């Protein structure tokens, strides 16, 4: 069953088209990663799904209902974790969650228990009476999540939920995302951290210039880059490396030394078997080889190949 | 329900003790300072202009003629009357005008009660009966003195007409003179006046914070979180206004109570109407702040509102009590929201205040004007907000 379906979703601001005909389906129980460089249109797409801005064109269906005609239903079933920390610093952690959960129609004992449940989920059950102004960045991020989940939404959208926090809090949040998913929530997750998306998401869409340029599982995306292979050769010393000679070998596309200068990265056509000639060339130069590793393309390579930009190019 | 929830949230986000103390201490100190420093304006010489008295004369024609010729002569002789009353306050009366009451006795008495006239005198065969406004003692004493002199003069003229002229300075017997004091509202002293004026001026400053009501949600990034919840923009708007109204009403009530019990300020005996006038001004201030922040943007509106408040305070009698001389400046003061609100409150507390809207008492006029302008400002804010994406 599709939890969310986008059909030709478009948003224009004057002459600028931020999202251009985005169509995709997200199935129940998925953790769907939305990747794209800055200005790709991810946040605009998420804001349209959340009902914050109207679409210029296209249709959004949540649980098979058009959200334009069922706004209240859609909002009740969506949890939104914004990129920025959106809490009231002069209200306690409990009051924050209680207030936002109350806006979703929860009342009395149910509201109280859901508030406590959300705070416990975020690891803040001992901070009920504490004010967020005294919290660390990670704790604020966790409270930010607690405020979005107390009403038990079917779809949770997380827009860069781990920006600017310590590794411990990041790990806590990533585990929370997995737990929410195990509890039956469908999640849309955007991040600048490729490794998070790679680790968490069951399916990924890559957006650039407002358009979706690729979509699929990690394996499917990596299979897009089938014509390349990467050889990582670790050397005792690369001082005498003749890069020009290496580039002259059939099939070699690029040669680069790593930052430390002790390993060489050789990009090569996948169908050309040139491993022996590459190794022979290095040994003839009198260099000692310590290890050889043939790597499959990473999601980062896929992203770079498709968009021509790194995910964290700001 | 969501409106109420958002309103309660507004109250919860305003629990900073330092802010609460500052919000209370500022007006309470200002009342004390202005009430003490400028008390001379209220306890020194007070020019009351011409004292106006209603009369009706009955009985034989000779008596009427005698009365009318006598008041004509007395008025000629009273140019520059002075009387001292009310502690150390000196009242300067420029003259006395006797107007014939053509509206009937009860209506004339009502006029006196409402402060339109100082007193009402009936002159007839049975003697003189005088209904005086007991809150205006000095002016009454002058009128009573004149009437007593007339009674003696009349008595003497009937008994010994040729000696009447020579006996004008004789002491009054009081035999033919009866005085009844009527209840009428008092006038404010300095603390009374500045309790009202400072409270309404402080309320105007609410528009500064009201301009940031929605902006604060944007700055805290909670605007989007509110909008993704099943809550309409109208509910958010109404909730924030309600919360702000309740918060400031609470503070204003505290200021009123503190001024009343700390300084003995007179807030009259109609607290409900006082509260209604103050509440209407709070709504006005919130609406002004919200309206201008939507129309001008938050940064520009702050400067504009500050200018409006300063002008409103200057022209509205926040620092010096306005005196209506009928000149251009007096007309200008009528444009200040503080002027009409202060008049509304003084009308509730003391009565006898001219209303800016004919046929309506000053307090109802204040409420009507405050709410009317509020509707305009809020309509502008709502109109702009509906066209905007987000709050």
UniProtKB/TrEMBL annotation, chain A:
Statement: the UniProt record of this protein carries the keyword Nucleotide-binding: yes
Record's protein name: Antibiotic ABC transporter ATP-binding protein
Membrane-spanning residues: none
Record GO terms (molecular function): ATP binding; ATP hydrolysis activity
Signal peptide limits: none
Organism of derivation: Paenibacillus agaridevorans
Keyword list, A-Z: ATP-binding, Nucleotide-binding, Transport
PROSITE patterns to which the protein is assigned, alphabetical: ABC_TRANSPORTER_1, ABC_TRANSPORTER_2
Classification via InterPro entries: AAA+_ATPase, ABC_transporter-like_ATP-bd, ABC_transporter-like_CS, DrrA1/2-like_C, P-loop_NTPase
Domain called ABC transporter: residue spans: 4-234
Automatic annotation (TrEMBL), chain B:
GO MF assignments: ABC-type transporter activity
Keyword Mitochondrion carried by entry: no
Membrane protein topology class: Multi-pass membrane protein
Principal location: membrane
Membrane spanning stretches: 193-215, 236-259, 271-290, 302-320, 364-385
Keyword Transmembrane: yes
InterPro entries linked to this entry: ABC-2_transporter_component (IPR051449), ABC2_TM (IPR013525)
Subcellular compartments: Cell membrane
Record-annotated ABC-2 type transporter transmembrane domain positions: 18-382
Pfam families on file: ABC2_membrane_3
Keywords noted in UniProt: Cell membrane, Membrane, Transmembrane, Transmembrane helix
Gene Ontology cellular-component annotations: plasma membrane
Record-linked PANTHER family: LINEARMYCIN RESISTANCE PERMEASE PROTEIN LNRM, MEMBRANE COMPONENT OF ABC TRANSPORTER YHHJ-RELATED
Protein name per UniProt: ABC-2 type transporter transmembrane domain-containing protein
Organism: Paenibacillus agaridevorans
